[in-house]
# Entry
Amino acid sequence: MNLIHIALREVRLGFRNPWSYSFLILFTVFSMSLLLIQSQNFTAGYSSTTSTMLNFILYLLPLMTLLIGSFSLTAEKEEGSWQLLSTYPLSTLSFLLGKYIGLAIVLLTIIAFGYGVTSLVGLFTGKGLNYQTMGLFIVFSGGLIVLFLAVALCIGTWARNRWQALTFGVAIWFFFIIGWPTLLIAVLGMLPYLWIKPLLTILTLCNPAELVRLFVVVKLGGGTALGPEYYEWMQWINGPLGSLSFLTICLIWIGLAIGLAYWVWERGRCRG
# Structure
């Protein structure tokens, strides 16, 4: 029993989970509907259509990822599967990484199917996204999934059952997605002007949704819509090392979140 076996097991369980198919249908139908309703021809770059689709994805995917990911870990506790798995020579890190990889495969397959259907419909109707814009949408969706899945592992290690996981997941989703702009304005409004830009950078790095959103909006050519406070972000993202730096930050984010989940799970394992 090792990391690969755990990952394959998670893929099998994920594709048997009714939640996965519910989100697959929801993601496919709504993304296709938005594209057909708002686009009159093939859309490129940052526009009202792409902005609306980005917001839709920003609302749906983090919540979907947090729920599926955290429920997967809490189910192991509630159903007694972890007690059985712990009798094998299986390390906590292999278990968590296997869960992460397996769930990532399931969730990335969902968005690949959704975008595949949407692209085919757009191709046949003449109402779609060009290849570069579609590629950035895939990066946006994939980035949200891999980052929030790491957060979901932390939730699953803390929560004792699915109800706690649901409560924690919705609370974190609301904080990062819904409440973030209001909280950001409230906090920055109380600070001296010289503190705003450094603190804005720090807070943006602390929010995976905002980090991915800024990167994709700038790459789509909509950096001017972000405001002068993000001018340095636009220079960084459009620079020669912008994409590589973004990838590095995402990997650090994932590593820290999984490391926290490992520490919490290992403590619980040692205590029995």
